[in-house]
Amino acid sequence: MLKGKKILVGITGGIAAYKTASLVRLLVKEGAEVKVIMTDHAKEFITPLTLATLSKNPVLSEFYDPADGDWNSHVDLGIWADLFIIAPATANTIAKMAGGIADNLLLTTYLSARCPVIIAPSMDRDMLKHPSSVINLETLKAFGNIILEPETGELASGLEGKGRMPEPEAIIKEIKSILTKKKMNR
Ligand SMILES: Cc1cc2nc3c(=O)[nH]c(=O)nc-3n(C[C@H](O)[C@H](O)[C@H](O)COP(=O)(O)O)c2cc1C
User: Fold this and answer.
1) Could you report the per-residue pLDDT of 45-96, keeping only the tens digit for each?
2) pLDDT in tens, 116-160
3) Using CA atoms, how far apart are residues 37 and 167, in angstroms rounded to an integer?
4) Which of 68, 144, 165, 184 could cross-link with 16 by S-S, CB 3.0 to 4.6 Å?
C-alpha cells in the first residue's frame, strides 16, 4: 500500500528522534520513497548518516550549500510529497509551525506542503500540558493537520505521564489509514 508513495519525514530535536530511524526503515521496507528533513537540533540526537543510509537519500537540512550555492527548494519538496510526517515534533517546532515561523528548511517546507501533514508531538508531560503547547496543537489541528496523540508511560525525564511518541509500527498504521482516506476522497 505504501509502494511508490512519496513520504517526507521531518525530524526535530527531541529524545524520541532515535525511534524515527525505525520509522524510516519500515517506510522504505514497505516500498515508499522517503526523504528526510532534519532541524539542526535533531542532529544532536541522531546522525544524518544513519537517516541517509536508511532512507537511501541524502538528508536535507540546510537552505543552501555555501560552498557552491546549490540550494534545496522547499517549494519543490512540498509539492513532491504525498504525505509529510513530523516525528518527533518538539514544543519549539510546534510553536513555530502554529505561528508561521519559517527559519529552517523543515518549517519552510511545512508552509509549502500541499499534502496531508501528520504531527507526532513528543515532549515531557508538563511541556505538553502547558497552555501554550495545548493552544499551539489546537491551532495546528484547526489548520487541518493531523495530530498523533502522544502515549502515556515513562518519559526520558524520568517522570511518568503523557508525552511519548507512538511506536513506529503504530505510526505506519496511521500513515496507511490517512493515505487510504485521501485516495477515497479524490
Ligand atoms: C536531552 C534533551 C532532550 C530533549 N527532548 C525534547 C523533547 O522530547 N521534546 C521537546 O519538545 N524538546 C526537547 N528538548 C529541547 C529541544 O531540543 C529544544 O527545544 C530545541 O530548541 C528544539 O529545536 P528544534 O525544534 O528546531 O529541533 C530536549 C533537549 C535536550 C537537551
Assistant:
1) 999 999 999 999 999 998 888 888 888 888 889 899 999 999 999 999 999 9
2) 999 999 999 999 999 999 999 999 999 999 999 999 988 887 878
3) 20
4) 165
C-alpha of residue 8 to centroid of ligand 1, in Å: 21
Q: Residue 186 contacts by C-beta under 8 Å, 6 or more apart in sequence?
A: none
Global pTM reads 0.96
Q: What are the CB-based long-range contacts (under 8 Å, 24+) for 27-30?
A: 27/2, 27/172, 27/175, 28/54, 28/55, 28/56, 30/1, 30/2, 30/3, 30/172
What's the 132 CA to ligand 1 centre distance in angstroms?
16
Ligand 1 atom nearest 96 alpha carbon: 25
List ligand 1's pocket residues with C-beta within 6 A.
12-16, 39, 41-42, 90-93, 122-123, 127
- Atom index in ligand 1 nearest the CA of residue 104 equals 26
**Residue of the CA atom closest to atom 13 of ligand 1:** 14
Domains of the chain, CATH where assigned: 6-184 (3.40.50.1950)
